[in-house]
Amino acid sequence: MPEQRETASSGKVAKEGIKKALEEDADLTLEGIYADATTAKAEQEDALERAQSGLVYELSPASTIVRGSETHQTSVYHEVMNRQVASGGSPQTLYCSFYLNCLKVSYLTHTSVQWYTRIRWDTGIMCVSKDVRKFHVGMALVFKEYVLAFVTIDLLFRPVWQDSFLDFIIPPDIYTQTTDFLVVVAQWMQDENWLNGKRYVLACDAIRAANKVWYGIGVYTVMELFFLAGLSPFITACELFSSPSRTARFLAAYYTYIHPHRRLLSPCIHEGVLAPTTEQRLSRLLDSYHVSILSWLLVSSSRELTLLCQKTLDAYAAASEVTCRASVTDLFDVFEPTLVEPAFEANPTWGSLIFGEWTWLSISGNIP
Predict the structure, then answer these.
(1) 8-state DSSP, 143
(2) Model pTM?
(3) What are the Cα distances from residue 224, in Å, to 66, 67, 98, 122?
(4) At the top level of its lineage, which domain of life is listed (predicted)?
């Protein structure tokens, strides 16, 4: 499953492309929808010549191509009435509005968004087979002067066409709709009853499983958030969510993680195409990630951590009595407040939950 920063990056690339096109007074009139065929489709006798050759081709109103999961697939082609485009997004999903029609593209695995000029598209992508370019054009919206392409390795994405944005249920996100997001989280905590039950569920597993609440938090993101929040990866959901301080720290970490306070992407976009150099990849990786990069650099430590994780899970499973960190007086969380500074600037009341009212007042000067 794609993670939050990955899908946020796709949304930024899409919006930056539209912004650039509008600044150039470019014509963003949709002229067609293109796609690569699957291997099975290309081998059919009635397949178009371009599809048989592994080349991207234009879909017609008679197209029956569908994409999605094995149990839920939807049509790629749709007859678009008003063909002027705008875009928006949320974790795991990108929305494109044509005013009278709306497209939602859900990333089931890893899908990237790229803007191509028509020259680059017509003389480059259109002329190179998928076997040579090493990626699929899952779906491409071809405009008069630009092309918005959803490129993927395995074609696992799901396009959904509707008549209006109102037909889509768009969940609140912590950055732009903080209060609404907190309401959703509070309801989830109450429904799951973390205070009184399920004490042996690891918090990282509970959060990843609740992907309708904690959008875009996968195996890499959850470890980064725990690092920023000063939480052990072995803490249980009960230990985390029964503590106002830990809960607020995790929320602050999540807010900071998606906060666009670092200009990471813009320097890596070249003529609309997200194509970072090796130097840019390494410098931004070291600047933006803490746990993931260490696990790659210290392979032996990663293996030891895996063994320790399994040992901890076995200990929880074998325990006959309920134990939690709250009952241990000399086990403290190591938390660095400056790592989540953007969250405190936007939501100063979280500081009082984390440190206590008077300690936070003495630290920040803000009255909760």
Answers:
(1) E
(2) 0.78
(3) 35, 32, 37, 41
(4) Eukaryota
